[in-house]
Design a protein that fits this description.
The chain contains seven helices and 49 strands. It is mainly beta. The strands form twelve sheets. Strands 1, 3, 4, 6, 11, 12, 13 and 17 form an eight-stranded antiparallel beta sheet that branches. The chain has a seven-stranded antiparallel beta sheet with strand order 2-5-14-7-8-9-10. A five-stranded mixed beta sheet has the order 19-25-24-21-22, with no helix packed on it. The N terminus is likely disordered.
Length: about 725
Amino acid sequence: MKKLIPIILLLVISIITKAQISFCEDFESYNAGDRIAQTSPQWNSWDELFTAPAPLPPFIDDVAVSSQQNSTPGGSNSLYFQNNSVAGPEDVLLIFDTTSNITQQTLQILSTPYAIGNFTYSKKMWVRSNSNGAYFNFQAENTPGITWALEVDFNPNLASPMDPGTVEMSNTTGGTMFTTSFPTNTWFEIKFEIDLTANVWEVFIDNQSQGSFTNTINQIASMDLYTRATGSVADEFYVDDICWQYTPYMPLTYNMTATDINTPAILGLVNAPFDIEGTVFNLGMNNITSMDVNYSINGGPTVTAPLTGLNISSLNSYTFTHPTQWNPPSSGTYDIKIWASNFNNGNADMDTTNDMYTKTVEVWNDIVQRVPLFETFTSSTCGPCAGANVTAEAVFGANVGSLTSIKYQVDFPGFGDPYYTDEVGQRQSYYAINSVPRMEIDGGWDQNGGLITQQVVDDFTIIPSRLNLSASYQITGQTLDIDVTIDPVENLNSNNLVVHMAIYEKTTYNNVGTNGETQFEHVVKKMVPTTNGTPIGSLAVGQQQTLQESYTFQGSYRLPALSPTSTPIDHSIEHSVEDFANLKVAVWVQDVVTKEIHQSTDAVVGSITPPSWNCNNNACEDPGDGSGTYNTLTDCEDYCLQSSINNIKQKITVYPNPAKEYIFVEGEYNFIEVYDVLGERVLKTAEKGKIETNNIPNGVYFVKVFSKTTQTVKIVINKEN
């Protein structure tokens, strides 16, 4: 470590002494058809620098200047990377050094890589919408091929070519670092403004900032342009007006910048108060032994605390926890701002433009542990899928209970997987899946399934959820009954929410194809009720929702053949379930517009609460806990109807009994009939209340009262008493 300090100081001194350098290329000085690495003293081909012995031009991977497209009015030329239906062979490098005619021998004496200072890179691009897209990378070392500082993938939206494509940026440390969008079939500019000293990489599309990120490989030496391919579809794009500029680091005596707030972006009010944790970076020349750290909330009063006993050397960072915790008064959105001041007992920051760092956080009433959903698109006829599934299953096996995993067996390449269904195709179209292996995580992470790592799992499980989700299921023969409970702890104001239920088979064996796999995990068999899911509307705190679904697999098992004439399983008459006892159910809540999945769960085997009913106020209601008096709705309705009739009967009163000259009837009715014991009608009247019996002999009679229902009362007429 003692030798490291002089080396760093020498590096700083050497950089300080260098002037700003820059380079621009518009390709106008070349003729159409000229090979750029062969013609230009600033460009090299990958083959030129790595083939031994060094080849003579023309180089097999060189790129031609083209006059077909140009980004500048009045201009003529650009570089054209054509679709060769395979990866490459075009592969050219622009090394960020002004040395001309760089060779294998001169690579090691260049001034690159740049590790501190400011670096700006820009170029115009035109990407064909129906191609594989475009690609370039930044190399981190003078000798290319060692470390990729940043890979930039331009992927058109093949499912909807008129919509913008997606730019994904990553490096050799793994995982997507930054994502944005770009237009196709038109010229656009992509630009990077990189503060290497503070490690802030900001991205611009057509001069509009797309945001910034911290790069785990924070140095840059060259840029590489290369054509990728997926199957028989390759990249196709043009580049023009490439410019770069490097400005050396010029340190001030005191210059501290805040670079990060480590307080989580989502907090639960029940866990308040919260620590304000931040990181600052010393851009100045002097070591910092003391300073004040400050924060404010929503532009409010400054909360200041002195820190002493420090030793923050130049070009080093320091992470602090402010001694005064923050106690938000309520849930809501807050802007937290941090900065440092008062260095070494009274010295001010000499560059106030970079002092502060702001982070927006959301405070919820409570937060729930997220269980992310991993949806894998794969096939037993896809060679790379075999290895990707092995990788993924190892990660899944190490995270049982922390995530939900399901797999869709698709109908390609070749004849595809025998267990492909139309519902899989619908889910495939929903995500615009055009290659396998492919994995969607919570509807957002969209990459090769073989790239899954523990870090990726951790990155998703650490994101809080707004709701608890639980589910159980029961298998009876070929029928599954599913019970789902959604319990929000925070409002989720979206009218696009649905609950998806996917019945999957834990392990299958019969769908062997051509890729060597003999066992397949979590294969989706049916989505319940359909791939549309069940709409649930917005969610409000304290308003629990429950869903019950039942699905019966029809007919008998069929294994579709790997054949061009084979048809997918028709769920109305057949199924592809190998073992019904091996079925499980995955459940998730998804916004169908944004595709974001807010929570998922693996349903547990349990007893489903049977429906039951009580008759309340002449209406049948299910209490939801199985405690109802009647097991069927029909039984309940029959009782309620009779009860209603009895209530009506109780409103009709016939008296006295025995009667003499009059019968009195109280209640609402239409008319009355009186019958003797032989069934002969002796009286019919619509009179109300008092009815004379003058013409009715003594004896036993039946008074029939007609209203909404019919009520009969036995009565005795005896005029002699």
